[in-house]
């Protein structure tokens, strides 16, 4: 399993994230008796040339790929295959799921996995190891002579408790992943569910994970937290599309943490229309210090158009509940949504400032394969192709076909992103507020200083 050795993406806040899915896949393969190694080349800063010297020792390389990374991923895999003609490349993720034929048209890719890779990869490697025909395996696509074959989908995993805990010992030694909203290190990312109850027009989750949200049990989540603590993990970032959905389960987890005084802090994603004041208070008592919230827009018509599912008054209540509980908030905001104008973008920026989140990120709405937004654009403007021109170097800071569903030009959207960061972060009152809410330790000072340096560098230099 390899991660991150070829990407040069723009990360305005400078965050790095442990590649949880690849860690899980490596663990599953090892538990199934296969020889499998995990390599986070990004964290270890392994160069392309070093990777090329490592790869010949392996028969198969597995990577994740999204629409914004696909071109770099595929080109790099092609380079590896030129040096090692026998290696088999397997790619999973959103882009292989929604654009399998496009992916397999690239010389660097041999096999793709659609949707959830956990058990598909296990079964595929088992068949390959036994030198048996894998062409019947559901959930994959492959090349057969001059043809591209894409099989029907593999069944979604019904019992998520069957997925093992990730072997965190496989993570690179002596490296603490940095994230500006993570308070304690070492930290780990994990998910406790698959799917989202939302139907946002710009999001791939409903198409990727299915229409129904599936959950790991409270016992599983509690056991995994205890496992992380035994391994020295101090903080968990729950990267569920929406964490606070199954309240009965979540309350059991929170109450266990409180009762047993677990030495763990955490943060999680939520939706404005699915969180309430009691849940925020309980989560805070259980060690949750930050909730991440998709705000997206400050104009109700825009929100309705992208099917965000909340009203502006709800947002004010949620952020007020969080402040009252002492909970930090992070607002995700998009500009260049369908219907956006200069006026609606200005409304959005003012709205976010009035919400007064602890931190905020601003990005340009991008149509990705697997979303209703992409389908709408592609049906009218086929030149969008597979959407992969939205590569990481431009992600969130340059528009992609936004001029076809907004009144804003590409260059104007880029300026507006910088303006949003400038208006939000360059307020004296914001930094006075930050001293109270964020600078409570020397580690906080270091963490916020790094993030602030990156943000101001983007504001002034782009």
How would you characterize the overall build of this protein?
By secondary structure, this protein is an alpha/beta fold. It has two domains: 2-150, Rossmann fold (3-Layer(aba) Sandwich); 179-461, pyruvate-formate lyase- activating enzyme. Helices cover 40% and strands 15% of the residues. The strands form four sheets. It has a six-stranded parallel beta sheet with strand order 8-11-12-13-14-15.
Biggest sheet: strand arrangement: 8-11-12-13-14-15
Could you give the count of β-strands? Answer: 15
In angstroms, what separates the terminal alpha carbons? 33 Å
Count of the domains: 2
**Quick one: overall form?**
globular
CATH hierarchy: architecture of the largest domain: Alpha-Beta Horseshoe
Structural class: alpha/beta
Sheet with most strands: 6 strands, parallel
CATH class placement of the largest domain: Alpha Beta
**Residue-averaged pLDDT:** 89
The CATH superfamily of the largest domain is tm_1862 like domain
Total helical segments: 17
Which topology of the largest domain does CATH recognise?
A: pyruvate-formate lyase- activating enzyme
Low-pLDDT stretches are 4-11
Beta percentage is: 5-15%
Rg calc: 22 Å
Question: Which percent range fits the helix content?
Answer: 40-55%
Properties at a glance:
462 residues; alpha/beta; Rossmann fold; pyruvate-formate lyase- activating enzyme; 2 domains; 5-stranded mixed sheet; 17 helices; 15 strands; 40% helix; globular
Task: Give the SSE map.
Elements: E1 2-3, H1 20-31, E2 39-40, H2 48-54, E3 60-64, H3 70-83, E4 88-92, H4 94-98, H5 100-104, E5 111-113, H6 118-129, E6 140-144, E7 147-150, E8 187-190, E9 193-194, H7 205-209, E10 214-215, H8 218-230, E11 235-238, H9 247-260, E12 265-270, H10 277-285, E13 288-296, H11 300-305, H12 312-325, E14 328-335, H13 342-355, E15 359-364, H14 372-380, H15 410-425, H16 428-437, H17 442-461
Parallel strand pairs: 1-2, 3-4, 4-5, 8-11, 11-12, 12-13, 13-14, 14-15
Antiparallel strand pairs: 5-6, 6-7, 9-10
Helix pairs in contact: 1-6, 8-9, 9-10, 10-12, 13-15, 15-17
